[in-house]
Design brief:
The protein is 78% helix and 0% strand. It contains 25 helices and no strands.
Length: 511
């Protein structure tokens, strides 16, 4: 049933150009479906897109189960601490390049095709690691899957362009849910089986993602930007289930396309001078700096090692699985919270609790870190603080920077700049993952936790003063929020009729 419904979207997407009457016939057929079916279809598309997020989670969590096995005496591949840090960080070092590449590719071949192609480096990277018998192929495999993680950032642009403003946050925030599911799966695989076998399941997940995404429709804004107006209109009807809603949204899309149309290379670069471009760019870059500074990705990539350092209450691998379960459950709660309480309140709550929990863990380790584990009072305190930190991160700080990449930029630069900002975000992740072992030697565990706490707490005033609220706003309304009042008034033609907005009404839903 699911494949059949998705296949309808693929057939509709390929339904010719402006002159094809079959396109309008398809639109009429889908117009008869109730809105509930259209909403179900949109959710189904989002779930299919997020199969790539499962691969992201598997790639991010793999080093946490791979490294302990490689460091054991039974492993045929032996690594020291420096080599282990490279295996962990090589899963991120290529990610900025993947994000840049996907940003350009998304403008050329489309959002959907870019996301489908993303499954191929995931698949090839897992195969390389699964067949490896030395460190070189592990390095290469991690590098390739890291590149794929970067390419997957286009998922957030795709979801922002197909969803309603009221549902955009929820559909995009499902990404971390699936990432958490992937992390949990790979933790379980690492606990139950040898790491070579784990790569087989991970490769199968990537292959399934490549297959299922084939049946999805392309986004209406991208189709319209390539003058495929009829296909864009039909896809909107399919996603909205209402002629009136699709007509209104198509009018806004055409307004954005009209602003983008005819831009030359120098004019395209000149877009960076506009406040609708440089303001969200700076906001997102600093948001990522605070996110990575909070240490949330260190807990994912070095989970088993961190629990061993703080003094495990249980087996460190079991604690990693517990955190994986908590992360998955809380990511679902976080999705609902972001949908109902807005971006800013959840970012403030999330970062505040993260900072406080890490501060308590740092103080406990400073006070009792040199005491034998069995002699410490309440030895479960550090582990509990880390679990609380993970819970808090899933309430907003992990999802929001990625979610807002697809929201803040105007259509004219959305593909390219989403790739650039994603690449910078992944570059920051690589830096913090790569230098973590060295920082641990310099700052020790207490110093690292203190640093993470400070960065988390500094996020609170940053959100209060700089982060815009985007919940419930259309993409065009978000774009106009970065303009001055006078400039925003000049853009008010988005609310006019098609003829007033200098848009040919023949492009509006030919039914």
């Amino acid at each position: 049933m699911i494949t059949a419904m998705l296949d309808r979207g693929r057939w509709l997407e390929g339904s010719g150009d402006l002159s094809e009457p079959a396109s309008s016939v398809a639109a009429v057929m889908y117009l008869r479906l109730p809105k509930q079916c259209a909403r179900f279809y949109t959710i189904l598309v989002a779930l299919a897109i997020h199969t790539n997020s499962i691969s992201i989670g598997m790639s991010q969590g793999f080093s946490a189960v791979l490294l302990p096995q490689l460091e054991s005496n039974r492993s045929s591949i032996q690594v020291d601490s420096e080599e282990a840090s490279w295996i962990a960080s090589l899963g991120v070092i290529s990610t900025p390049g993947g994000a840049l590449f996907s940003g350009m590719l998304a403008e050329i071949v489309g959002r959907k095709t870019t996301i489908q192609i993303t499954a191929l480096p995931f698949l090839s990277g897992w195969v390389m690691m699964g067949l490896s018998n030395d460190k070189i192929w592990l390095y290469i495999g991690r590098f390739v899957t890291g590149f794929a993680i970067g390419m997957a950032s286009t998922c957030y642009v795709y979801l922002a362009e197909i969803s309603l403003p009221s549902e955009r946050g929820m559909l995009a925030a499902l990404g971390p849910v699936f990432v958490s599911f992937g992390v949990l799966l790979v933790y379980l695989f690492g606990y139950m089986m040898e790491w070579h076998i784990s790569t087989v399941v991970c490769a199968a997940t990537a292959a399934f993602s490549f297959f299922i995404i084939y049946f999805l429709p392309e986004t209406p804004p991208w189709l319209a930007s390539k003058a495929k107006f009829s296909r864009a209109s039909d896809t909107l009807l399919l996603l909205r289930g209402s002629k009136e809603a699709a007509e209104a949204e198509m009018r806004q899309i055409l307004h954005s396309v009209d602003c983008k149309k005819g831009l030359q290379y120098k004019e395209y670069l000149g877009q960076s001078k506009k406040p609708t471009v440089w303001k969200p760019f700076l906001i997102l870059v600093f948001f990522f700096v605070f996110q990575e500074g909070s240490g949330m990705y260190n807990i994912v990539y070095y989970a088993t090692n961190i629990f061993r350092d703080i003094g495990p209450v249980l087996d460190s691998s079991v604690e990693s699985i517990i955190v994986g379960v908590v992360r998955l459950v809380t990511s679902i709660v976080g999705t609902l919270c972001i949908q109902n309480f807005g971006r800013r309140p959840m970012a403030i709550t999330s970062s505040g609790i993260m900072g406080l929990s890490m501060a308590v863990a740092a103080f406990y380790n400073y006070r009792y870190g040199t005491v034998l584990l069995e002699d410490r009072p309440c030895p479960y305190v550090p582990f509990t603080c880390l679990v609380v930190n993970v819970i808090a991160s899933m309430l907003g700080m992990l999802q929001l920077p990625w979610l807002m990449i697809g929201e803040l930029f105007p259509l004219s630069v959305r593909g390219i700049l989403s790739g650039i900002v994603s690449s910078l975000g992944y570059l920051f992740i690589f830096i913090i993952i790569k230098v973590y072992p060295n920082l641990m030697e310099t700052l020790n565990l207490t110093g690292m936790m203190t640093l993470f706490s400070i960065m988390s707490l500094l996020t609170v005033p940053y959100v209060i003063f700089f982060l815009p609220e985007t919940q419930g706003k259309t993409l065009l309304e978000i774009e106009h929020s970065f303009l001055s009042k006078s400039a925003s008034k000049e853009e008010a033609d988005m609310k006019r009729s098609p003829s007033e907005a200098n848009v040919d009404p023949v492009y509006i839903l030919k039914i």
